[in-house]
Amino acid sequence: MVLNSIWMKRRSVILTWLFSYVAILFLPILIGVFVYRESNAALEDEIHRANDALLKQVREIMDNEFESVLRLNTEITWNTKVQDLMYANKLGRDDYPYSLYQVAMDFKLYKTFYPQITGFYVYYTPGDTGLMPGVVRSGKDVYEEVHNNPDFSYEDWMSMITSKKAPAFVPMAYRGVNGSTHQSIAHISYFTSDLDTKPEGAVVILVDGSKLLTALQNVQMFNGGEVLVLNNENQILLSSLETNQHPVLTNRVLSEDQGFFHETYNGQDSVFYYIASQKTNLKFVTIMPSAVVWQKAINVRWITYISIILSILGGSLLTFFFLKKNYNPIKQLIHTFTDESADRRHDGSNEFQFIQNMISHTVNEKEQVKVRLKQQNYLLRSNFMTRLLKGRLDNQIPIEDALPAFEMHFDSEQYAVLLLYLETNDQFFASIEGKSGNEKAKLLQFIVANVVEEIMNARHIGYMTEIDDMLACIINFRNTGQAGSLTELRQMASEAQKFLKNKFQIELTVSISNIHTSIVDLPIAYKESVDAMEYKLIMGRKEIISFHEIQNEALGEIPQGYYYPLQVEQQLINFLKIGEYDRAKETLDNIVDRNLKINQISLPLARCLMFDLVSTMLKALHEMGDTQEESSGGSLKEIEKLTACETMQDMHEQLTEMLKEVCSNNLAKRKSTLTQIRHQDLQTLTQNIVRFIEENYKDADMNISMIGLRFDMKSTYLSKLFREQTGEVLLDYMNKVRIVKAKELIESQNITMNEISSLVGFSDVNALIRIFKKYEGVTPGKYKEMYLK
Question: DSSP letter string over 67-84?
């Protein structure tokens, strides 16, 4: 149930706040963790540097101790007496004992110069002799006196000092003066003369390990940990531990000159620091428990943990307190909304979003009501203006009382009416994408109405309405002390017309009424603008037509008829029949110019002329036999286009296009007729030539020239026509006819070839044989043999 409740409120603002507070709470925690990590890293770096510094002190002390060992080893090795003993092979010579004595005396002197050296000796392998400071002993005696130890036998000692190795530090037991055994560090170097033999001797220098550890007691690190000295084979030479063997160090490769690593030592995590000697191949190692090394870091860690826990506990309490305090007002507001709107309950979504949706819903409802009221007011005002213009107002309500209800007011008693007719606006419709035709038409009317109203209201008062597929604008001149003028109305109409054309590609035809001095005369002004708009038939589209100008023209002398005599009509029909487009267009242009530009006929006469011209086209099409709908020039669809023209200019353009199409079709028909007649004549000529050849093939003088003279044509032209009609050369046809006749004579009569050649029109028998073989492939004689068989 708790999980379901939390899931239902997963989008609630209280969870958003909770996450925000948790994020704020985690910010100092993250900062604390970051600070802890950085401080821990800095502290760790400081600890490492401190330990490195202490380890370098250990190295410096040890290097100083071992430097004297190396110096002594150098002096012994390069001692001339020792060199002479090792490499001169004095064994068995008389001066051999004396040489040993001299070397022992020199060693006694070295002992005085190096008091820090615990002991040293040289073992001479050929004589099994040990040379010590002031004394000479056998090898066995040297072992007994210096090293005697159960863990380090004589054989081990002998193997160590007689093996062939590089100089090195090794661990070695040492007997003190009182006979006690001590752990020491021995440096062994060998005298070798040949790589394949045992060394002639060895130098062994001993340093007491306890003395070295005593020298490190002043180092602080030694007080908190353990110190070890390792040779290059990781053997422990010196150790402050209880044992000299440590598996961690024995099995680990310390390849770098300096470093540290963590390992478990004596059951606790420890840090092993090591550093290489600068003067020998030794390494110095210290072992310190991690608890000692990281004591300060552990304290910082616990302080950080405690601060984080306290931050979480305190932050959780404060979060709960502020969540409850801040959410109560929102909770009360949600209850208020749900109480006022029972059909809208909070479904667990974000409370702010719920409140925003409720406020937006309320605002939207208000806007919708406002829009509906505005739309209704617009429709009511449009209906009121329509009835006002047509004089159909309700007499029970005075106009003065009705105007404020429709948010209309007039400033003076001067009125006029502009009527706007929207012409075909294909360019405007093409520029609008993604809308239907009805939506585009509404947008067009909206733009025109707003532009015209804005231009009119800039100087006077104007109200637009839609009426009878047109837009009407009631103009009320402002009370400026000057009477309104029709010139000013024409200027404003022209301004609106140009702006709509340039900006939106919208074209208008505008008509203007006279100016009237009473609102009750608006129906008269509307009728005047309608009458002026009808003159678009004569004046054409996209014009500004003033009823005042038309009225003045009506008072002048206007012809009582129009120019269109019967002979002119017949000429136009004849030109159409013969396809004379230029002369037919000239006749039509002359009729239109005489009636509209020169005589300027009235509107009723213009309508009559229009129907008379349509009648002429019907007569012409009927006489040409093209009254069917499928005909190209005189189809009924073209006639319908003519009758649908709104202006004489449109009528003129449509008739011109129709004239051009009809004349073009008639010319094509005439050309087709001439072509058919010529084809028939050629067929007749070809038949006559064939008939002439069949009748005169026996005449040996018949040839192409003779046939040309017979038909009064050149022989070459006649041969060309014959070939075009039949596909054969005229000479070949003549020869084929003669060969056919010759075959008939060969098959039917028993006559000679000479007789046959003369009967079919060949001048001699050779000509018959040659041409017969050309067309039949065999000679006439061979053909006769084949036929008789």
Answer: HHHHHHHHHHHT-HHHHH
